[in-house]
Amino acid sequence: MRSDDALELARPRLLRQATAYGIPLDAVDDVVQETLIEAWSHVDGLRSPERFEAWLSGICRNVCLRWSTGHKRALQRHTQGLGQWLVDPVQHDEPYGEELVDEQASDPVDVVISQDLRCLVARMLDQLPHEYRVAVELYYLAELPQRATALRLGLSVSALETRLHRARRQLRDLLAREFRDDALAFGFAPEACSDLNWHAARIPCRQCGHYQLSGTFETLPDGGINLRTRCPGCEAERETRGLIPLHGVRSVKPALKRVEHWILQHLTPQLQHGWHTCPWCGLCAPMLTVMPIEQALAGDLLLSLHCPGCDREASTWAWKCLHRHPEIQHFMLTHPQWISRSAQPVQFNELSAWCLRLDDRKSRERLLLYVHAQTLAVLATVHE
What is the pTM of this model? Predict the structure, then answer.
């Protein structure tokens, strides 16, 4: 099939793609036409015909993003911004493939460098899971507002932040491994391309019970400290995202102790009232809600904090709020190989509740806890 015919046959699919990227109906035809023109002018550079559809979709994606951002990016902002992208919203066009150069660059050397950088970012984005890549494209590249991005993806703002944070983490890992040489060749700081410094926490994973946790500290853009822990076996990951003050703590185990103490001291008492002083602005009273945690953190409950004043959101582990309950403490002390199981929503005495479960891997004993869906007040315990 001739390339002209193939491009024209792709028009309906490109119209759907542009609409999905939020291009208004009165502009979508122009965006698709620009996509076809750019594709036609560079089709000779397509070295792998079997990649035609992916190549064309990449061009359409880039045109959509360029339309959304007003054609305002150039090479210098690319090279200065990629490292910041890994910790904050980027200031980049979405790359769409190795065959297309940046026609805005006037210096031929800059054209080559820009093309190579676009290829690097495109290859990195291709390594992300689909849901992460779409979130990155809409929020960072198209610069949609956070709430608009969350609405389009059918997520809460907190879930979107979690997804974007994990996407940035995966991109950092890619820079540290598969794309390290490429990143260093572009002059990115070595620390942006280095692997994270994971330390053994000497604490068993309470998700699977087979491995010990490792942890690392990350400095956030606002100066806060994010504690990350992970299990090498079940790959369960946790992070504090700057919610809990951890300045001055150098080891993972003491940091986890501080996290537990902070939750018990600051959050647990406020669950009964449904409000908490905002940890960032100190003036607002965000509501606390308990909800199932998504994907990788399944098995826990997520305590979500939203401040309507400074519009900040964060989350932490609701399970920590229960550690001082006498029966829970007794079970943990007498069953050192305890693990937690997935929380299940239930009705208890006509109240919305969660059924939490602790299992002992050695004796097969277990403790069931029925807790109020919002306040986490323990309604009943059953030792089996």
Answer: 0.47
